[in-house]
Design brief:
The complex is a heterotrimer.
Chain A: E1 2-9, E2 20-24, E3 31-37, E4 43-50, H1 56-70, E5 75-81, H2 86-100
Parallel strand pairs in A: 4-5
Antiparallel strand pairs in A: 1-4, 2-3, 3-5
Helix pairs in contact in A: 1-2
Chain B: H1 3-10, E1 18-20, E2 23-29, E3 35-47, H2 49-65, E4 70-79, H3 83-87, H4 90-106, E5 111-115, E6 118-120, H5 121-126, E7 133-136, E8 141-143, H6 147-154, H7 158-165, H8 175-180, E9 186-187, H9 194-203, H10 212-218, H11 225-237
Parallel strand pairs in B: 3-4, 4-5, 5-7, 6-8, 7-9
Antiparallel strand pairs in B: 1-2, 2-3
Helix pairs in contact in B: 2-4
Chain C: H1 3-12, H2 25-32, E1 39-41, E2 66-73, E3 76-83, H3 94-110, E4 115-119, H4 129-148, E5 153-157, H5 166-173, E6 176-180, H6 190-197, H7 207-214, H8 216-222, E7 227-229, H9 233-246, H10 252-269, H11 275-281, H12 295-305
Parallel strand pairs in C: 3-4, 4-5, 5-6, 6-7
Antiparallel strand pairs in C: 1-2, 2-3
Helix pairs in contact in C: 3-4, 4-5, 7-8
Classes of the chains: A alpha+beta, B alpha/beta, C alpha/beta.
Amino acid sequence: MEDLTFRHRVRQRAGGAKNIAITGVVASGNLEVLVERTLPDAECLLEIKTAAHGFGDVWNAVIADFVERYSPGGLKFSINDGGARPDTVSLRLAQAVRLMEEDDQ
Amino acid sequence: MTLDEILASMFPDGHDVRNDSGLLYGLGTLRHGGRALVIGVANRSALGVDEAIRLSGYVLASIEKGSGPILVVVDSDSQRMSKRDELLGLSEFLAHLAKSLIYADMHGRPTIGLLYGRSAAGAFLATALATRVLVGLPGADPAVMDLPSMAKVTKLSIEVLKQKARSTPVFAPGLRNLAQTGAVHITWDERVPLVDQLQSLLANMPNARDRRDALGKERGGRLKAHDIAERVRGLALQTQ
Amino acid sequence: MSAHTQTAKFLAGRDRAASWYEASARKRVGLLVDDGSFFEFIGPEMREVSPHLQVFDLPEQFDDGIIIGRGRLDGSPVFVAAQEGRFMGGAFGEVHGAKLTGLLHAARDIKSMPVLILFDTGGVRLQEANAGELAIAEIMRAVIEARTAGVKVIGLIGGHSGCYGGGGLIAGCCSALVVSEQGRIAVSGPEVIETNRGVEEFDSRDHALVWRTMGGKHRRLIGGAEVFVDDTVQAFREAALELVRSTGGFGIDTLKAEQSRLEDRLQRFGTCRDAVEIWTAEGIPDAASIPELPADQFIPLADKVWRTGRDAR
C-alpha cells in the first residue's frame, strides 16, 4: 500500500453543521472517504492509502482541482482507495463535502 | 493413535462406540461412573445432510434421556460439496447440529470436542467448533481451508502463503495456529492415558461462557477480537 | 448509470423504494430503521481496521466491512448489524466478526431488543481464515445464547455476496430469515463445488442453476427462509417487523421440531435431482416458470404452498 498526504490552504471554511461524514466502499475501482471537521478554517488535509502505486501526480491533480472548486476549509479527508479512477475519486470527494454541508447533525 | 486406540485409551472401563460408514455413535463409561455420549465423524468423511441429521438426532435423543458430558470426536473432511446437499439446504442441517450441541452445553451437558484428524470449513464449524472445550491430539490437522485452495482463491502462490504464514498464526492451517488463536484449548499428550487427561478435564471444566477470544488474546493469536467484542457490548449496554 | 446520476440519486435517496441489492450496507441500515434513529457503535471514525490485510498489501475499510449499532423499527428499539458485501466480499475477519459478537452478547444481556442481521457475505475472509472461522463459531454460539434469553434474531439476505459459507451457518442459527430474489444461501459456493467436483456436478457459470439451487425463491419454497420479499428496503423493513412480532422462542421443543422438519424434507425430496422436481413435488403447477415469476406473483403462490410454522429453526 502507498500512503499519500496532501495539505492545502483554502479561501474559506466548508459550510454546514456536520462534523463527520463517510461515503463510498473499498472495492475494486472504488474508495471510501471519511471526512472530519477537525482543522482550522483555512486548512484542509487529505490522507490516502492506496493499493495502486505510483499515481501520486494524478492524485495531486485531482485533489488540487477539488480543493479549488470546493474550498473544504477545516476538513480532514481520510481515504482508503481500492484503485478508483480519477473521476470516481472526484465524485466521492464532492459527495463527502456535500454531506458535511448538510445542516442537521 | 488410531481411532480404536483413542477410544480404548479414553474408556478403559468400556465403550460401545460404533463407526457406521464414518459416523460415530455410542456411549463410553467414565472413570468415576456415569457415561459420556460419543458422537463424531471418522475416516476423514465429508459432512453432508444425511450425516448431520443423524448426528443431531443422537444429540437430541441424549438430551431427552441421557446425562453426562458429550464428546464430539472428529476426523472429517469439509462439508460435503455437492449440488444435492446445497439443494436440500445443507446450511440448515449443519446449523441444526451446532445448535443442538450448543443447547446441550448450555443445559447441563458439557460438550468436549476431540480433534484427532482433520476437520475443515463448515464441518469444523458444525462439530469441533460447536463444543465448549476443544481438545487436539498430536497429528490433528484442522484447517479452515487447505493452502492449495487458498492459493487459488487469493491468487498467491503456496510459497508466498507459507512465507506470510511464518509471521502470523491467523490464516494458515494447523493445530498450533488453531491453538494460538483460541480455537483449540488443550493439546493432549498421547503418551499419557487419555482417560486420565479426560478425567482431569472433566474435573476442571470451565463454565459455559465462550472464552475463546480471551484465550486468543492471551496466546497472542487474536489480539483484537476480545477487546472489540467487549467494547461493543459495553457501548450497546449503555443503550438502556 | 453515469457517475453524476448516481450522485443525484444518492443524495436524494431517503426513499425506502430503493433497491436493497444496489444499496450499500450503510444505506440499507439508514433506510431500514426509523428516520434518523440509527446510532453506530465503533463507527469508521474509530478506525478499527483489520490488522491482517497489510501483510497481503490489501486495502482496509474503516469499519472493517460491518456496521453495527442500534435504531428503532416502528418506534421499538432494535440492534442492527449490516455487512458490506462489496468490501472483501463481505467476508468475516477478526474485527468484523468481533463487532457482531459483541452486539449479540449485549442483546443476550439486555434480553428485550431484537437483532437484525443484514447478511452480505461470502463466508470466512481467507487472509485471516482462523480468526474469521472462530468469529463465526463465536457468533453462532452468541446467537443461540441470545435466543435462549428470549431475543429474536432476524436475518435479512439480498445483497451482492449472498450468504455463503459460515454466513450460511449463522443464518441457520437465526430465529427467522427474509430473502429476496437476489439472495442466495449456501455453504459451498458454486465455484468451490465446481472446482472440487467438476462442472458436471455443478456448472458455476449456469446462473439459472445457481439460483434454482441456492437462490431466494428456492430457499423460500423449500423452507430455508420464512419470508420472500421484493428487492426494496420497504419490503425488507415490513418483513422484519412482521417476523419480530410473530417469531417464537427457542428451546428444546424448537430443536425437536427442527429435527422433524429436516427429516421430513430429506424423506420427501432427498432423491430429487433439481429444484424444479422439488417444486413440482410440492404441488406447484408449471414449476419451471417459477424463476421468471415476478415477486408479487411468486409471494402468494409460495404462501399457498407452504406457510412456515414459527415453531422450528
